[in-house]
Each structure stands twice: as structure tokens, then as C-alpha cells.
Design a protein that fits this description.
By secondary structure, the chain is an alpha/beta fold. It has helices at 55-65, 110-120, 132-145, 163-167, 180-199, 207-216, 234-245, 257-266, 298-307, 322-328, 335-340, 348-371, 375-399, 405-431, 437-446; strands at residues 43-49, 74-78, 82-88, 105-108, 226-230, 249-253, 270-271, 285-288, 310-313, 332-334. It is 45% helix and 10% strand. A hairpin with a 3-residue loop joins strand 2 (74-78) and strand 3 (82-88). The model is unreliable at 1-10, 14-36 and 147-174 (pLDDT under 50).
Amino acid sequence: MSGHPGTSAHRPGIGGHPDASGHPGELAPDDAIGRSGTPLSALVALTVHARRVPSLEREAFAAHAAALASARGAILLHTCHRVELYAWLPSLAGADLPDLPAGGMRLEGVEAAGHLFTVAAGMDSVVIGEDQILHQLRDCLAARHEHTAATVGSCPAGGAAGAIGATLAGRDAAVVPLDPVLERLFQLSLHVGRQAHAWRDGAPRSLADVALDRIGRDHETLDGRPILVVGAGAMGRIAALATARRGARVLVANRTEDRATSLAHDASGVAIPFAPGADLPGVAGVIVAAGGPWPVDPVTARRVRELRPVVVDLSSPPAVPADLQAALGPDFISVDDLARAPEAKPHERLRRRVDRLVVETTDELEAWAATRGCVPAIRAISDHAEAKRAAELDRLLRRVPTLEPEVRDLVDEMSHRLVAGLLHGPLAALRSDVDGERDALVRELFGL
């Protein structure tokens, strides 16, 4: 595997990063330290997005990344528009990172952290400021915590982001705990997402709203027009409810009839067969949000070609059969097509606020990572001092066995307070030790 230089370091904020396709390379021991020696230099993000990488290539990368998805030093975020592998190199024990497809990016250090925080804020989404990514991040982290991660659903059309659930299906080994650096990274990303959500004005938009906008181009209004939603999962529900809010008539088709009926009820619509054949009613558009292929039989396919509705497939990889896609021509819109279409930019005030929050949170993570190295020294000093304190207290009590219990308790409390007071300064200095010099000095002074 050939080496890859990564991106140049600069403080993260909202906005794109230059494309950097290539191979991350085999991890040598020195890579765990990082090139710049900064506290976050060993953090790497391999990102693949629908704006630059087609669906099938994204899914192929996700399949390769799944080999690391349960490792202590890796976590995989997989939605219908993005596949992102975050790795903390010291915890990967020399494992290989997967090759990036053309158009993928490798980010390192603060660049990697800032990218995830920007993603969590909804500023890197196809729909700026959308809520789904925050739910997807939460689901991804929750799935990583679960030892039975294979029970988590896959990601049809931007539903659950826990690609781990799909990629770990059938694995026997329990998921090992996530490295604290990655745990902290994702917890902070959830904080950023919640804060950005609180700043947003107006009703939230989703990918389903973009699909409805595209369908609505061919009609003066969607009010009262029938729209078919294929799929009753997370994204199917979002699409059905968004369609109902537009005043359109909702039709729901799903593999499981009961789920279709339930969703149709919630959206004040009706359920129809998953493959309705010639009985497919005239529809203004079709939104496909299925977790797998839509089994379009020849009769249904012929009926769709006759009706010529706009078909928006939000699934990755596409659920609509390739021959029907070709037959529909420009009336077929894939999830990749939506990703490459221009979308409204965030308001400048919101952009500045989120940009500042991303930088502040990255600094917070970097400061936290800088003090992690002092933990063993702090524990060693504390254990050393406690052993000395306990030994001296035991010696005193053996020399003065007639001390009253109340006095013994006072002496014990005094010894704890004395040790704590003496160690307060050294431990505080260790906690602010960024370069590790105080660690070595304190160990030498205390004889550790």
C-alpha cells in the first residue's frame, strides 16, 4: 500500500476540504505519535461523500472499513450520503486502514475533529441544518456501545446511521470498548449538534423535502396529488409525513404490510401492495426509501413507465432496478443526484456562530487529549502517597493503641488532608502538562 500525505493542518471551520484520494498506507509504530506531535495528531478520518464518490463505491469502501468497525481504535459512521471511518492510531495496533476511493479524503488531527463537529452541526449535509445527522451520530455511538451491534438496522435512505449494525451482522466477537479519545470526540460532536440545532430558525428540512421539491417542479401544486412512498423505515416515515404536510395524498408500500398500514394511518394515507402491478394508481411522484431492492415486477415496471412520475430514490445503493432507472431517464433522481444539486447556504450569522463553536470544541478536545498522558503519573503519585500515609498511620496506632475511636478518626482525617494539601500543587501542574516534561520531573522527584 502506498503512503498518503493527508491534508495540510489548519484550524477547522465550516466549509469544504480539498479532495485527497489515495491510500492511507500501512501503519508503522511512528505513525501512532503523529507527524506534528500535537495531542490530536494520531486522529485520522477517512471520509467518502456522495458529492464526490458514487453510491456503489461508497458502499464498497464501507464494506472494507467494516473490518475495523469493532476495533477499539475505530468507529464507522455510515449514512446514505457519507461513509466516514474515524481512527485513533495508537489503539489500532498496526492494523491497515482501508484504501480510499477516488474523491475520498483523509483528514488528520484537528482537521478530522473539526470535520466531525461541522458534520454534527448539519453544515456539511445536503440539507443544511437538518436534524437527521444528529440522530445518526447518536445511533452510531449507541450501536458502538452495544455488544449486540448486529441488531442495529442498516442505513436505508439516511435512516439509522449505525452502519455498524449492518456491517457487523453475523460477527461472533463482542464489540470491544471504544478508545476514550474517540468516545470523547463523538460525545462532543453530539454537544455541537444539539447546540447548533438550538440556534436554527424556522422549520427543519429533510432529504424528503428536497425530494418533494423535485417532484413539485412538474406540478403547480402537490395539494391533493397522490405520491407513493416505498419503504416504512426511518426515512420512509420522514418522507410520508413530509408528503402529508405538503397536502399531497400519501400512498405507502412496504415489504411488511402491517408496517405499511401503520405508517399510512399516521400520514392519513393508504397502504398499497409492495409490487402493485397494473393496480398502481396514477401518482405524481414516487419516493423510494427502502432498505433493499424494490422488487419491481414487469407489470409494475410497465405501469411506472406509462405514468412517467418523477421517481426519487433515497436509498444507497439504489433500490430501483437499473433497467427501470434507464427507462425513466431524467425522471429518475438518485440520492447521489440530490447530493450534487445546489442547496441553500446557511445564514451568515448562523455560519459564524457554528464556525466559532467548532473551533472552541476542537480546542477543548485538544486540551483534554493533552492531559490524558498525565493520568498514569497522577495515579502513581496518589498510590505512592496513600501507601506512605497508611503505613505511617498504622505505625502510630500500634505505638498508641489506647487512642479513643474518635481520636483515631480525627488523626486519620488529618493525614488525608495533609497528603491532599501537599499533592495539590504537583497534581495541578501535571494536569496542565502538555509536553510531558513535568511528568518525567515529578516521577524523578517522587522516586516513581
